Amino acid sequence: MKIYYSNSESSWFHTNEEAISFGGTRELLAQRNFINPGSFCLDLNVKDQHAGPLVGILTGRKKDNTLAGNGSLFIRIQEELLRLKGCSFVFTAGDISNNQIKGFIYSPDQKAWEQMIVPYPDVVYNRIPFRRNEKESDYKQLLDLLKDKNIPFFNPGFINKFQLYLLLQEHPILKAFLPDTKPIENKNSIATFLNKYNSIYLKSPESASGKGLYKLEYSKECLLFRSCSHRETFLNIEEFWDQWGSLLQSRKYFAQEAIKPLSLGGYRNDFRILAHANFSGYEVTGVGIRQSAIQAITTHVPHGGSIRPYEEIRTKEHDHFIKTVVEEAGKWLSDHWGFFGEFSIDAGVSSKGKYYLFEINSKPMSFDEQEIENKRIKNLCRLFSQSLNG
Fold first, then answer.
1. Fewer CB within 10 A of the terminal residue: the chain, N end or C end?
2. Order of strands across the sheet with 199-203?
3. How far apart are CA 283 and CA 57, in angstroms?
4. Can the peptide bond before residue 172 be classed as cis, meaning omega within 30 degrees of 0?
C-alpha cells in the first residue's frame, strides 16, 4: 500500500478508503483523494490495518552538531526494509519536541537523506555511537517516553566491562569461561594480582576497539608496560604506580589475567562472534577470526590485526562453545539489562585448550566479512518486522 508525505504540510496521508494507522502509537493516517505535487512516497506492508514496520534508528550528534553513526549501516538497513515494504528513519534523542520527531529518511532514488516529521516508530534500534550521549538527559527522557508508549527498544545501551564481568560471574555456565578479573583498588591490589599471574591486562570499563588497553608483565628484571602504541619499562611496581596509579584509579581500571593464547603459526587468533535474537532465543549470525600482529596485545584490525576465515580453524568443539555462549549470554543479558536484539562476543582459546569469553559488545561494528554483514542486515530486518507481531 502506498502512503505519502507532503513536504509543504509536513504530514503523512494515503488515498485508500479504509482506515490505516502508521507508527508505534497506531495513529490513523489522514485520507485524501489527491496527491500533493512532489510528495514523498512509501510502499508499505499492511497488517491488521497498520502500515509498516517503521523503524527508528537512534543515533547521536558530533560536537559540531552534525549526525554521527554508521551511515553505511543505516543505508543498508533502509534499502533492505524498503525491499520488504517497511521503512526506517534516523533520529537523535534531541530531535523530539512537542510530541513530534524530526527524522531523516534515506531515499535510494535520490541517494540522499531527507528530513521529515515522522510518527513514533514501531521499534527503536539503539545505535548511539558515544557513551556520553547515553548519559545526557535527552536520552533518559526518551527511554521514559518509549516505555510510556510501549514502544520496543533495543539494545539497552553501552556495556560497562567490569559490570559485565560481575553479571556473567553469576551465570552457572558462563562463569567457567571468564578470565580472573579484579578491580584496581590500590598499589597492593595490582601488585598481588601481577605476582599471581606474571602477565596481566589493565582495562578501562568504558573503552572500545583496543583503546585504553594496557598490558603489564614481568620481563627479566623489570616491569614491561605497553599499549598498542606505547612501550615503557619500570624497575618495580612502586615506580610504575607513581606514574600510572592516579590515572588507573580515576578511570576505574580493572586488572585481568593475560591468557596465553593458542598459537597458530606464531600468531594469536580470537573469535569475533555476531549474534541476534530469534523466535526461540539467540542464534549465531557469523564468526570471524581476528589474528594479531606479532607481539601485539590485541587482535583488533585498526591496531595491526588481520582477518582470517573461521572455516580454516573450525572444529565441532569450537562450534559447541560458540553456540553455548551465544544462547546463554543473550538470555542472561536480556533478563537482567533489557532486550538485546544484537550483540557480538570476543572470545578465544588458551594454549591449554580452555575456552575464554573476553568481552560482549552491545553495538557491534560492521564485520569485514561481507557474508556475515549481509546476514546481519537480514536478521535485523526480521527482528524489526517481528515488532509488529508483539
1. C
2. 181-183, 254-257, 199-203, 214-219, 222-226, 231-234
3. 22
4. no
CA-CA distances (angstroms) from residue 187 to 128, 203, 233, 241, 387?
Answer: 36, 16, 17, 6, 50
Cell numbers 536520552 correspond to 139
Quick one: residue 144, left, alpha or beta (phi over 0 = left, psi -120 to 50 = alpha)? alpha
Instruction: Assign 161 to helix, strand or coil.
Output: helix
In angstroms, the CA 216 to CA 196 distance is 13
Element at 72 (helix H, strand E):
helix 71-83
Per-10-residue mean pLDDT of the chain, 390 residues long, equals: 94 95 96 92 95 96 89 96 97 91 95 96 96 92 95 93 97 98 95 96 84 88 86 94 95 95 80 94 95 59 69 95 98 96 96 96 93 97 81
Q: Name all domains of the chain by residue range, CATH numbers in brackets.
A: 2-154 (3.40.50), 161-177+260-362 (3.30.470.20), 187-256 (no CATH)
